[in-house]
Amino acid sequence: MRRIIIPLIFGLAGAAILISLGTWQVQRLTWKEAVLADIEARISAAPVEIPAALEPEADRYLPVTATGTYGAERIRVLSSRQLYGAGYRVISPFDIGGRRILIDRGFVLERDAIPAPPAGEVTLTGNLHWPSETDKYTPAPDPKADIWFARDVPAMAAALDTDPVLLVRRTGPDGADVTPLPVDTVGIPNNHLQYALTWFSLAFIWLGMTGYFIWRIRNPLKGN
Predict the structure, then answer these.
(1) InterPro entries given for it (predicted)?
(2) What pTM was computed for the model?
């Protein structure tokens, strides 16, 4: 009996740690699902006029409507679409009357020319967004190739002389080759269920190995 005490304690302690990690991931899953539900509710709410004062965190995903005219300038941000391939997000300035903001017009395939924005006054709806797409490894924009590698709202605003406000178009006129890429929750990772299953599986394997080890102690192999 003494020979199995230490392996038994070690096995039960290890399994308890693994089960606690799995339980924590289940709790994180519940939390993440609530966060995603809140974001989806905010995205799909009725659009409002763009507020005069904005806070990037508080007003992220705010659905808005804006009427104004496009500027001729634009930025191409390298992107891709599943099943379609590489292309660009097209970012243009938009004058809404004494104020210029950024519009993410949508996606254009790499092989297609970027059409000029609609002329005259147009009304757009979409969501405000301040995406976090840059880090220390993100290359700087390449002016020779006319390519940006991420949507950096402050930097794009400085380049196009606008307020640091990005409206991601959901509806409203544009060229036929420009496909809107509305704000959604698809890109927000939620892998907690897989993590939980992994920890619980490891706990089951750990207990099985512990049981087998204890069985071998109590039933040693007999020599020939």
Answers:
(1) Surf1/Shy1, Surf1/Surf4
(2) 0.82
Q: Which two tokens stand for residue 104?
A: 């993410």
What distance in Å separates the CA atoms of residue 210 and residue 10, rounded to the nearest whole number? 8
DSSP 148: B
Q: Two tokens at 158?
A: 């400085």
Distance of CA 148 to the CA centre of its chain: 18
> Distance of alpha carbon 185 from its chain centroid, rounded?
7
pLDDT score of 212 more than 60: yes
- Of the chain, the percentage scoring pLDDT greater than 70 comes to 97
Cα distance between residue 162 and residue 93, in whole Å: 7
Q: Using an 8 Å Cβ cutoff, are 160 and 71 in contact?
A: yes
At residue 182's C-alpha, the angle toward residues 179 and 185, to 5°, is 135
> What phi-psi label fits residue 186: left (phi over 0), alpha (psi between -120 and 50 degrees) or beta?
alpha
Predicted confidence at residue 1, as pLDDT, reads 65
Average pLDDT over residues 189-201: 95
* DSSP 8-class letter at 70: E
Q: Which residues are within 8 A (CB) of 108 and not within 5 positions of it... i.e. 6 or more apart? A: 87, 88, 90, 114, 115, 177, 178, 179
Q: How many CB atoms neighbour CB 21 within 10 A?
A: 16
Average pLDDT over residues 28-54: 94
Measured CA to CA in angstroms, residue 119 lies from 11, 69, 70, 71, 88 at distances of 71, 7, 7, 9, 21
